[in-house]
Specification:
The chain is built from two helices and 21 strands. By secondary structure, the protein is mainly beta. The protein is globular, with a radius of gyration of 23 Å.
């Protein structure tokens, strides 16, 4: 796009509704051939009345061999994603954002995976923002409708960028900004994506999430920032190795992150409590999880390498025969727990994760990392990345699940085009090898080409 100064530079980012092209009202700043559709005036007298149009196309090649899902033969296929959005601004107070999507799958032996590989045509986002100032110094926005949601680092709620079909939610958010504080209240329900055209219903999913999320941002990135949250979660038909029932879960937690003298860190965790109602009776939920990521960037060395270590400890159920549930629920997580292929849903394991990142330029990097996983509880099994129970690990003696090496490289060829390539190899551990339902050695290749405008 035609971006010329520091404040005018708006990168094409994941959450497209954060983009602001009002500066293109000055025609001298329209230097890209697509700039005329990024700012279309709706009023000759009001520059803050305008329409912006954008979109993106992504082609994703995947190859999977012997993954945890039980695929015993290599499977290669192509996934397509097409998105088109409009952003209507009616002054500083009212805004309407719409986004259509189409995701298609070609060549997968078992056909498209439900909910993530194919949705031929769908309304991905359609929300209205009303912005106002309820008190002096407080800027508020009330958002209603279908929308993408990311909370904090995305470890509990995010857009699911890796799979072909991104995740959106139906609901309401009330976002408030006061000095260094950002506080929002929300009630949302995930959209259940179906494979046809315009067949995704409103509030169709049996899962709901509500609560408060607060963030304190320092004025400089070199200082420490804080998040705090309280989230309520209900699933009318939750499935765990312990059983199936209605889950009412509450999570209280926080996050501390920042940078200092080329060191960076991210520490976050939470405690969960509530009830789990099965046919046999009602049990209590009690679980916790914590994650730490510490790194240092050596800017004086060639390629400015960053060395880091991540570690997670996420509780599993400690007694599969009682009614109480100790399995942690990560809700709608990102892939931040895993660099390449996500072998497991982030629950009932602990891991250590050293990583090396080489920055060849501001737009090109290479990451090599290694992750080792252990089962936290011998009474609980493993779960697919979707959260569905996959392997009960009934042998009960071995904790080591395996290790995984990931190699990822990324090129931002220009503002509009990027190329991403990932290779992952998973080595099974004793917990799977000695189990009645073993997981085989896994290979995963992911090559993505994306164009955004």
């Amino acid at each position: 796009m035609g971006l010329t100064s520091e404040k005018e530079t708006q990168p094409i980012i994941m959450l497209r509704y954060f983009e602001d092209y009002q500066f293109l009202a000055d025609s001298t700043k329209q230097i890209d051939f697509l700039d005329p559709i990024k700012y279309i005036p709706l009023s000759q007298k009001k520059p803050d009345w305008y329409l912006s149009i954008g979109g993106d196309v992504r082609f994703l090649y995947e190859y999977i061999n012997n993954r945890f899902e039980g695929e015993t033969n290599g499977d290669a296929y192509l996934l397509h994603r097409y998105m088109l959005h409009t952003d209507w601004h009616f002054g500083n107070n009212l805004r309407v954002f719409t986004q259509l999507g189409s995701t298609l799958e070609d060549g997968r032996e078992a056909g498209p995976r439900p909910g993530i590989d194919q949705d031929k045509l769908f309304l991905h986002q359609f929300f209205a923002d009303y912005s106002f100032t309820p008190f002096e110094g407080v800027n508020s926005t009330l958002r209603l409708g279908r929308q993408e949601v990311v909370l904090g680092s995305g470890r509990l709620v995010t857009i699911r960028e890796g799979p072909n079909t991104r995740l959106s939610f139906d609901g309401a958010r009330w976002m408030n900004r006061w000095k260094k504080w950002n506080v929002e209240a929300l009630y949302i329900r995930p959209v259940a994506n179906k494979p046809g055209a315009f067949d995704n219903e409103i509030f169709d999913d049996q899962v709901s999430l509500w609560g408060l999320y607060a963030n304190w941002n320092a004025e400089a990135l070199s200082l420490i920032n804080f998040d705090a949250f309280f989230l309520g979660y209900n699933n009318e038909q939750a499935i765990y190795h312990q059983g199936t029932g209605e889950e009412d879960r509450y999570t209280v937690g926080g996050r501390m992150f920042g940078n200092l003298n080329n060191f960076d860190f991210n520490l976050e965790g939470g405690y969960q409590f509530g009830t789990f109602k099965q046919l046999a009776g009602e049990g209590d939920i009690s679980s916790y999880g914590v994650s730490l990521d510490v790194g240092r960037t050596f800017k004086s060395l060639p390629f400015s390498p960053r060395l880091s270590v991540k570690a997670e400890y996420i509780q599993g159920d400690n007694d599969r025969d009682d009614l109480d549930l100790n399995t942690t629920n990560a809700f709608f997580p990102n892939q931040g727990y895993f660099r390449g292929a996500a072998p497991l849903f982030p629950t009932n394991f602990y891991d250590i994760h050293p990583e090396l990142r080489l920055n060849f330029s501001k737009t090109n990097y290479l990451v090599i990392d290694w992750t080792a996983y252990w089962r936290e509880s011998l009474e609980d099994g493993t779960y697919l990345p979707s959260g569905v129970p996959i392997n009960p690990l009934l042998n009960g003696d071995d904790r080591f699940l395996g290790s995984q090496i990931d190699i990822e490289t990324y090129w931002q060829l220009n503002r509009n085009i990027y190329l991403l390539a990932i290779y992952s190899h998973l080595f099974q551990g004793d917990a799977f090898e000695n189990n009645p339902s073993p997981a085989e050695i896994a290979d995963f290749v992911n090559i993505a080409l994306s164009y955004k405008f």
